């Protein structure tokens, strides 16, 4: 399983090591001002549309036609291979999402990764996994899909497997769930703990958290970098064993 680490921009200027072998997810919303690192061009990078920012109220009165043109240009300029559609169903409806998806794919001449939401229903999922090589499940972070509904992932993944379709779990790093549900890939910002001295560490099989002594004295950047390195260890473990 590929575990993409989101939020690298938080520590980008403090990171001194190679990132060539690290799976990273970034958001177009982070890069829209034109400032971004070369990591967006690497093969182990996947790009999110930034639609989540709109859903959480950070984006207002967006011209989605203009947004999709800029999004496509960024993808083309950086030769990005993997990128998600604008899954803004709750804002504009599925028909408009489909129109924007078609426009994005025409502008980039590539298939995007469509993002299924529970509101789209089972039949829509079956069509998605037939028509695409790589799809995603959204609504996990926003709790549109509640934890008690996670067992439904089994059906979704089984149907995708029948079509030889890869599935990404957006924002899914429930450690028990990762071992139970065989996603092709997932992503997380969970490594960005540390505001109160809480840090992540890899124990050989799982990610754990600990509170360091004198946590108020810990430099937040050092804390994030330390946790990021531990999640890289888990990333390598997941790639081999999950």
Tell me what the structure shows.
By secondary structure, the chain is of the alpha/beta class. It folds into two domains: 188 residues, TIM Barrel (Alpha-Beta Barrel); 50 residues, no CATH class. Helices cover 38% and strands 15% of the residues. The chain has nine helices and nine strands. The strands form two sheets. It has a seven-stranded parallel sheet. Helix 3 packs parallel to helix 5.
Quick tags:
about 240 residues; alpha/beta; TIM Barrel; 7-stranded parallel sheet; two-stranded antiparallel ribbon; 9 helices
What's this entry about, in short?
By secondary structure, this protein is an alpha/beta fold. The protein is 38% helix and 15% strand.
- Relative strand content: 15-25%
Separation of termini?
A: 5 Å
* Reported CATH architecture of the largest domain: Alpha-Beta Barrel
Largest sheet: 7 strands, parallel
Overall number of domains:
2
The coarse overall form would be globular
Number of strands: 9
Structural class, from helix and strand content? alpha/beta
Work out the helix count. Answer: 9
- Fourth-tier CATH superfamily name of the largest domain: Copper homeostasis (CutC) domain
What is the percent of helical residues? 25-40%
CATH topology of the largest domain: TIM Barrel
Biggest sheet, spatial arrangement of strands:
3-2-1-7-6-5-4
The CATH class of the largest domain is identified as Alpha Beta
N-to-C SSE string, H for helix and E for strand: EEHEHHHHEHEHEHEEEH
Mean pLDDT: 91
Q: Rg, please? A: 18 Å
Pick out the low-confidence regions: none
């Amino acid at each position: 399983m590929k575990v993409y680490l989101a939020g690298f921009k938080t520590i980008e200027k403090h990171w001194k090591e190679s990132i060539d072998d690290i799976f990273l997810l970034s958001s177009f919303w982070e890069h829209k001002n034109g400032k971004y690192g070369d990591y967006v061009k690497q093969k182990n990078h996947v790009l999110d549309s930034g639609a989540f920012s709109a859903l959480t109220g950070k984006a207002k009165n967006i011209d989605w036609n203009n947004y999709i043109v800029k999004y496509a240009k960024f993808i083309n300029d950086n030769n990005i291979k993997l990128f998600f559609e604008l899954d803004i169903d709750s804002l504009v409806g599925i028909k408009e999402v489909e129109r924007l998806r078609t426009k994005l794919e025409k502008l980039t001449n590539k298939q995007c990764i469509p993002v299924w939401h529970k509101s789209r229903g089972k039949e829509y999922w079956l069509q998605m996994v037939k028509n695409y090589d790589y799809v995603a499940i959204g609504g996990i972070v926003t709790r549109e899909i509640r934890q008690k509904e996670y067992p439904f992932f089994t059906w979704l993944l089984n149907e995708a497997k029948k079509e030889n379709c890869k599935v990404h779990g957006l924002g899914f790093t429930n450690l028990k769930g990762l071992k139970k549900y065989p996603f092709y890939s997932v992503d997380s910002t969970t490594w960005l703990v540390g505001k109160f001295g809480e840090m992540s560490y890899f124990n050989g099989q799982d990610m754990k958290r600990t509170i360091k002594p004198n946590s108020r004295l810990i430099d937040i950047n050092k804390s994030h970098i330390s946790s990021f390195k531990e999640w890289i260890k888990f990333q390598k473990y997941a790639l081999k064993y999950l």
